[in-house]
Please model this.
Amino acid sequence: MDAKQDESAGKLQSARSLKALMMTNSPQSNTNLYDHLTLLLMKVMDEHPHDAVDVIEDISHDVKLTFSEDKQNLLRDLPETTAAELLAEQQRLLFSRPEEDEQEEQLMETLHPNVREVGFYLEQAGVGLGREEMQRIFLALKQLVESQALLGCRLWGKILGTESSYIVAEAQYIEGEEEKNSEEVAEEEEEREAENEMDPLPRSTYKLLPAVPKEALGTGANTFVYYVCKEPGHSWVKLPSVSPAQITVARLIYKFFTGRLDSPVVSYPPFPGNEANYLRAQIARISAGTQVSPRGFFRAREEEGDEDEVVQDSIEVNPDFEGIPVSEMASFSNWVHHVQHILQQGRCTWVNLAAKSGEDSNEEGEAEEKEEPDEPEPEVGPRLLDSLSKDSEMFNIPPWTFKVSSTLTFQHAVAVQRSNLWPGAYAYACGKKFENIYVGWGLKYAGEGYSPPVPPLPQTQYPQMTEALDPSLEEEQVLEEALEEQRAVQKQMEDLDDEDEEDDDD
Model:
């Protein structure tokens, strides 16, 4: 009897210790096994699941979730809309088609080329942006043409940046567009001069050297107008026109784009503008060096006028062009530049700054006769429609590399030219069709390594001046005696003159 009591007492003690163990809270979930099993059995009794032994793990997991519901507010909520969702929402508008768009569809095809067809040929050449992105860009260009009422538009390319990239569209210039004309600039200068006349403070007579004037819109480096956006569906931003000073400095610096048009360009020499101006300068340089076409596609425009005044876009499409076989496109002589070369002056046409400064000096009425400086020789660059065979090498690297999309079927192949001086610039030709595109960082090949320009030498200091020594006492006495003698002599001369005048009166 005592043995049975001892055995039952031991079992009771073990049950108590087990219950105490089961009621110990976990430091991670702050729950215990006893309460968990109690809720688990209550859930099984309430729901009567089929094959409870097979789903007991899932039921246990659900019970644990009920304990953690009160702690869900400690978790970080997911954002309502991600950046990808916002972009998709903006691009959704590109695929919406108005009901009255059927009549404008034919007009739209004439305003800009078929980007999907261009993407197909670029894909054959092994370059491009991919079918999906080209389709979005095609719709974005269509939206640009309709919103800005452009006469023509084409995909120029894509310039990569450290934060975001730029999709660049090239449009024809419409006469009467934006920017201040010469009359408005003259009025502003007159207002400044009037303010300076009212200001009594002295003005400096130093005059800066005459700046190289900017080419008018629709001519030279400003022949076309460029729009950029970061992604298809985003708003298009029109880039400002480029100036010779911006092109000159852009040739001396080597800087990546950030993807923000308003960001400053920190460089040496200092760049006159922000990233939008720097982007426009690089677009002008890339276009002048890499925009090529098959020989014969363009021809010189026959236009009556003075021979000295040659219009910048003096070429036109040749309607008699029949295309060149792909096998003959391997020769650089069958490819020509159809965008005008930019001179060292930063313009496509040379301007005589000496004559301009002479006119300014004549207007001011300078009386001093100066020797007229020698007339500078006009700078002459490569002409329009010059062949690629005349391009010069840099760093012992040929400027262009030719390839064919397929060496098995030449009759259906695409001829491709790749620029080695501007990595990312490509041109293809197939029959009567050709196109140029640029996809890169917007930087020219700099050889093995880029070396920034050396700062100029510091200016010479003001010449050192020596202070005269003070005279001694003896020197001061001698000087005073000499001055007294001069005064006495001068007084005697005056007395003699007075006596002579009195004698003359008598």
Remarks:
- The chain has twelve helices and twelve strands.
- Residues 473-505 form the longest helix (33 residues).
- The longest strand covers residues 433-440.
